[in-house]
Hints:
By secondary structure, the chain is α/β, with parallel strands linked by helices. 23% of the residues lie in helices and 30% in strands. It folds into three domains: 4-166, alpha-galactosidase from lactobacil brevis (Beta-galactosidase, Chain A, domain 5); 179-480, TIM Barrel (Alpha-Beta Barrel), CATH 3.20.20.70; 483-575, no CATH class. The strands form six sheets. Strands 21-20-19-18-15-14-13-22 form an eight-stranded parallel β-sheet. Strands 23-24-25-27-32-29-30 form a seven-stranded mixed β-sheet. Helix 3 (196-209) runs parallel beside helix 4 (242-252), helix 6 runs parallel beside helix 7 (350-368) and helix 9 runs parallel beside helix 10 (459-474). The two termini are 49 Å apart.
Amino acid sequence: xxxxxxxxxxxxxxxxEQTAEKDGVLFFDLDMVLEEExxxxxxSLKWTFDVIDTLSTWSPTIKAWRYIAPCWAPQxxxxxxxxxxxxxxHFSRDxxxxxxxxxxxxxxPINFSSGVNEYTAWLDCFIDFFTVSVAPLKxxxxxIRVDLRDIPYEQAIKEVSKWWETDCGYTPAFVPEHAKxxxxxxxxxxxxxxxxxxxxxxxxxxxxxxxxxxLIDDGWQxxxxxxxxxxxxxxxxxxxxxxxxxxxxxxxxxxxxxxxSVPFVGKWDPVQPxxxxxxxxxxxxxxxxxxxxxxxxxxxxxEVRDYLVETYVTQVKKWGIDGVKLDFIDSFTHTDLSLxxxxxxxxxxxxxxxxxxxxxxxxxxxxxxxxxxxxxxETYVGPCIRQYGNMLRVTDCPNDALxxxxxxxxxxxxxxxxxVHSDMLMWHKNDKVxxxxxxxxxxxxxxPQISVRIQSLKEDHKKxxxxxxxxxxxxxxxxxxxxxxxxxxxxxxxxVWSVKNGDAVFAAYSNAIVDIKDMNTAKIINSTxxxxxxxxxxxxxxxxVVNCMGEVLETGKIESNLAKINVPLxxxxxxx
Length: 576
């Protein structure tokens, strides 16, 4: 395999050499040395790859249309410390790996791209380094991992994740038990119109259903928009005594998390119209951007990092909360302003400053509580982020079961033992109960976050939610800790299953034959447009069919090797 260097800067010497081959995986060292310290200019590595029996492209940044793509409009993977991860995969029609490329450096801005060359029918593949300006440097080194083995594509991707953990130094944070349990989120239920007594009532209804944590999202603080953020004072019109509010939820038996936007500082005081925010005044000149209203902190200043760490430590101690949602860290990005030198900065590299900040936050909070809950959401879900957070959440996709399915499975493949959460599940209160249940069935292999007003649900919707949360909890170890397999990523995953100790949970999302050979037990969820599923290699086993509310519809014994079993939308077949 040969890499060509494209666009090498005149003042740089760049070499790429194969250094190892381990069990069929190739490793290449890339080294760049500049004549003198400078901001490195973008350059690329190019290689070609035949597209024989190659169907599609997998990457966590590719949302829906996972086609091969032409070279003049290639598929792209974006990566930097606070956004996505450096991995790009091609696979065959039957889900076998054709090539999986990954980079050890998950901090620097790096892009992958690939597309078919129409003259040769080969893939033109590129890795672009320093796609966004970084701090001046003299030397750069990283390792490129190339997996060309004929193995399941899931295995190739999972092994990259393990490589980042074990060989590249990105040791994941400890995951406490409550990070792995269903929770309630206030965002879609209330947005910023939070009401203390209504939230208390929702918690009283959530706990018996199996939700163990409530996330108090944006809206608890003074201000009504990002242009009024920064000082993080509780809106006492909504919460007269926030510590007492937290205590009331603790008495119900639930944990409490609180939302913070990490980078944003508003110019205006949230309480006094027309008066500048004191935090904005204090840190003027220490922002990454120029703006009329909302600024992004520059974490290369120690004063900024200290302030942010102190903010979260103070609130966790003062209120007795159990966790934080740290939002928008992908907004730590360079602008022309932030590339200007400033001797007051103690860290030159923005990527390293973000890393230093997040490690400091994690260490300070876990010192207070080793089981502290720390959530991040897409796009900040890569190997670096797993060092600081124990919960990774699908991006906002209200009422969008398909995005919840594809993104949660994407993250399961690359996130090891870190808890992967759905986006908050919501649905219309007048929807059919079977259709509403699809919000859960499409994200069944991750931890569910619920964001509907339980007080307003119809009785059949309450029964459905109670049944599915109970089912999820009873099968939690299989669903979230088992070995996960996912057919047909090119169409958003047609059949997904997870196996642990011979027990399996399947979810069918399109017409498919569910083969349960060698399984002790199997639970098969019907999330297709059909009112039956085909089950193979289950002859002689007992089965039970329930609807989405857990009501038994049929029991019996499977009489043939390939059996058609009637099961309604969002129902489940239990086979044992």
